[in-house]
Amino acid sequence: MTTYKQLSVINRSAVAVFALLAIIGATYLAGAAHAGTVSLPQTGQTTSYYAGDDGAIRAGVAWPNPRFTDNGNQTVNDNLTGLVWTKNANLPGGYKTWQEALDYVASMNSAGTYGYTDWRLPNINELESLVDSGMYLPPLPSGHPFTNVQYSDYWSSTTYAYDTSNAWYVNMFASEVDAYGSKSNSQLYVWPVRSGQFGAFGNSTVWSTGQTTTYATGDDGSLQKGVAWPNPRFTDNGNQTVTDNLTGLVWTKDANLASYKIWQQAIDYVASMNSGVGTYGYTDWRLPNRKELRSIVDYGRTGPPLPSGHPFADVEPFYYWSSTTYAYITSHTWRVDMFAGRVYGQIESDYSYRVWPVRTWSATPTPTPTPTSTPTPTPTSTPTPTPTPTPTPTPTCTGYTISPMSNTVAASGGGGSVSVMANTGCAWTASSNVGWITISSGSSGNGNGTVSYSVSANTATSSRIGTMAIAGQTFTVMQAAATPTSTPTPTSTPTPTPTPTPTPSCTNYTITPMSKNFTSSGGSDIVSVTTTTGCAWTAKSNDTWITITSGSSGTGNGTVTYSATANNTTDLRIGTMAIAGQTFTVLQDHLSCGYTLTPQSKNFTSSGGSDSVSITASNSTC
């Protein structure tokens, strides 16, 4: 273990240390031609829980030793990424809303904290780069020099593209990456960062998130820190593989090559790809680790969160397995959501998710041996029977998927598009169930396709919900209410009676936000009520699975706290609350279902036969 005394020696020789790191980094780069713009580091997991997992393979650049250097001025260098962090991981001394977090870091620059004026709130890639997937409480490398690390959520500067009222955060208890932090209502911790003067070790520079829209001064969209993506980001190799030109990783073009698997089956499936001459000519496929699977995420997009124009096929907006075990509960494994980019742990044996194989770039695929030709015997005069034509198989047309499954539109109207995923040859149609939603293109299609729609303005003072039927699925549109116009009070005719005390005008109530989207596990949130002083209001739930926990009534400005129970069904559900005469809408995702087939194949003799297949669902309600 590095002692404080040793760190002091390192500080006095900082130039020599970083010169050494630069030499070692150059050594890594010298053999990394065609390896991409950045080289992904290892996850930190060193224990193997199953052959072929992250702990066994340890793909990526090994971390430098020491990983961190205490600079002796209340800052710490990350020698892997080149970033500089405040040594105190709770410098503000408590929680902040997202905007307060940005303002706090801006105030550090005004004051020149620790002699620097370029502090920032880290983006989601920078914040996640601290994580050691082999550790928890906190998920940081052993012997780190930080103080006051809170086992809770830390803000990033990256906005959640699907719901821009939320922002991404990393949990420093076990390292979940999520985006259900409401910018205005959630209170999280703040850990400022700045760019260092030295390069990253082994080219392990943090890359930009993909977010280019600015939502506040100093946020990810305005600063866009990190290595810019190459153009093109991906190259279709023409052999059913795709190279990521940012990282040098090679992925299967088909993102759903294996359908649903439990974790060990996923690793076994990828191992089977390496048998013989190898799938697509390669024998070094692996299940991606957590960092590799996250590396393809574009945090400026959702459903799927991949860069525009990507060449992949059949990307499912659901969870994909990584090869990295959840250190806090080793019966669980990390998974990445390909709807938005969330990172959660899940039990390995009970749930089935998608599999997306990956490999490291190499110059030449394993050559496929040319089979030795067998001499053709001289045919006899036996007449050749006319073969019976093999009928063209009818495609299975039951697995239609749409993404996203809902959208929230402003009162002024707007539009959007919905992606349809279906097997080749499977036809589908799209129709609107309400007059104010119009399908502008894609009213029918075959295989994968897109439906574009427009939403007319809502002139009513209450929000509204409409649906479209797309490929047998229901797409929901929630539209905000128009801002009510106050009716002027008519001037009364003067009378000799005394003028009464004016009653406040209580016709203008506003609630913020007007809707919320929860995962199937449920959760809680807060709604703000804005009105004139003295104006009373009430709040009530219209659905049994939504409970108001505080703020069922109030006067003037106030808040309503509510909770949503877990959704254990396979159907998306929508509920409402009546708050101050306004309608608040709650949308909750359905339970994700995975299925396992036992056995997965059967070999019959030429005489035919029959057999049975057992189907195991990940949940009894599936």
How would you characterize this protein structure?
The chain is mainly beta and 622 residues long. It folds into four domains: 54-223, no CATH class; 234-360, Roll (Mannose-Binding Protein A, Chain A), CATH 3.10.100; 399-481, Immunoglobulin-like, CATH 2.60.40; 507-602 and 612-621, Sandwich (Immunoglobulin-like). It is 11% helix and 28% strand. The longest helix has 17 residues, at 14-30. InterPro entries: BACON (IPR024361), Ig-like_fold (IPR013783), Lcl_C (IPR011460). This is Secreted protein containing DUF1566.
Summarize the structure.
The protein is 11% helix and 28% strand. By secondary structure, the chain is mainly beta. The protein starts with a helix and ends in a 5-residue tail after the last strand.
| Total DSSP helices | 8
Number of domains: 4
Number of strands: 34
The main β sheet shows up as: 5 strands, mixed
Give the helix level as a range of percent. 10-25%
Rg is 29 Å
Instruction: Categorize the overall geometry.
Output: globular
Mean pLDDT: 84
In percent terms, what proportion of residues is strand?
25-35%
Question: For the largest beta sheet, what order do the strands appear in spatially?
Answer: 16-23-22-18-20
Give the distance, in angstroms, between the N- and C-terminal Cα atoms.
Answer: 50 Å
Helix/strand/pairing class, anyone?
mainly beta
Low-confidence stretches: 1-35, 363-385
